Amino acid sequence: MEELKRFYVYILELGNRRSGKRIYYTGYTTDISRRIREHLLNRSCGFMRYYHNNDIKKLVYVEVVNESKPMDLLYHPREREIKFMTRSQKHALLNSPRNHLISYIPNFGKPVIILKKPEQLERNEE
Fold this sequence. Notes:
The protein is of the alpha+beta class. It has one domain (5-124). Helices cover 25% and strands 32% of the residues. It is built from 4 helices and 5 strands. The strands form 2 sheets. The chain has a 3-stranded antiparallel β-sheet with strand order 2-1-3, sandwiched between helices. A hairpin with a 6-residue loop joins β4 (101-105) and β5. The longest helix is centred in the first third of the chain and has 9 residues, at 32-40. The model has no long low-confidence stretch (mean pLDDT 76).
């Protein structure tokens, strides 16, 4: 039996300084604390490099995905699925049982991210 690898698909809510609009950035990682810290310290490339630390409003969604196959893709399939959702579909997702995020406290040293316990995840996904 193959060992499952844990991935985190996440959504950051950003504020656009010029328009005042909220933007949702979707990404995936194997280490959610490290990745959010990179975003906070502006150590990101691509789309996120255009946003400074104070543009990040908050982490609003985390989904835990267990995979048996190694992911050497540019996008995780679930991340891609979320990226192509409409704004209203993303709003619905934020309030769904698939959102494993309980609490988020931004901290440049080490962000505090509290997720549901494994037994809570199993109950919510039934």
